[in-house]
Amino acid sequence: MAGSNYERELKHILHGDLDVIDRVTRTCDDKEKECYLKIVDKPFVVSRAAGSMGFDLIALRGDISFPIEVKTSKRKTIRFSDASGRASDQARRMIRECNRAGLFPVYAYRLKGHRGDSWRIYALEVENVKGRLGVMFKRLPKIEKSSVGHYVLRWEGGMELHKFIDYLCR
């Protein structure tokens, strides 16, 4: 499945699409499935914003909204220094844009071939996040930085998507 297909998968999950939720939770346990299903009653309007070096998705709902960058890999670590550092440049641009708007970028990492909840959620460190979005920002694990300042996503360090959904749907 290409990266854009995983963007679509996450878009449909956050939109509360039962067919997609049923498919992605086939290998999840009952508690994980129960949490995923909560999004059906409190869905987001999700727009694909795919473009060169921009956000992949924008999730909108009356009480909370956030931009999302989707990453996928068969490996449990993604180093932003790979691919000539483009991902690091993109992250810095996202930080600038989100600081201006009082938002923060959400990173969603899909581990290919994993059984169970294969998505992990992270926040990119920014300033100026207030209100309910600020509370959510504090709860999410932050993306690590290497000793030379490059961002690193470690799949094990993220919040499971079903727990993120559970929090969003309280």
Strands of the widest sheet, in order across it, are 1-2-3-5-6-9
What's the number of extended β-strand segments? 9
Q: Mind telling me which CATH architecture this is? A: 3-Layer(aba) Sandwich
Distance between the termini: 32 Å
Q: How many independent structural domains? A: 1
Number of helices: 6
Mean pLDDT over the full residue set: 92
Supply Rg: 15 Å
What would CATH call the class? Answer: Alpha Beta
Largest sheet, strands/sense/barrel: 6 strands, mixed
Tell me what the structure shows.
It is built from six helices and nine strands, in the order αααββββαββαβββα. With 170 residues, it is of the alpha+beta class. It has one domain (3-168): Trna Endonuclease, Chain: A, domain 1 (3-Layer(aba) Sandwich), CATH 3.40.1350. Strand 5 (106-111) and strand 6 form a beta hairpin. Helix 3 packs across helix 6 (161-168). The model has no long low-confidence stretch (mean pLDDT 92).
List keywords for this structure.
three-stranded antiparallel beta sheet; globular; 9 strands; single chain; 35% helix; alpha+beta; six-stranded mixed beta sheet; 170 residues; Trna Endonuclease, Chain: A, domain 1
Short structural description:
The chain is α+β, with helices and mostly antiparallel strands and 170 residues long. 35% of the residues lie in helices and 24% in strands. The strands form two sheets. A six-stranded mixed sheet has the order 1-2-3-5-6-9. It has a three-stranded antiparallel sheet with strand order 4-8-7.
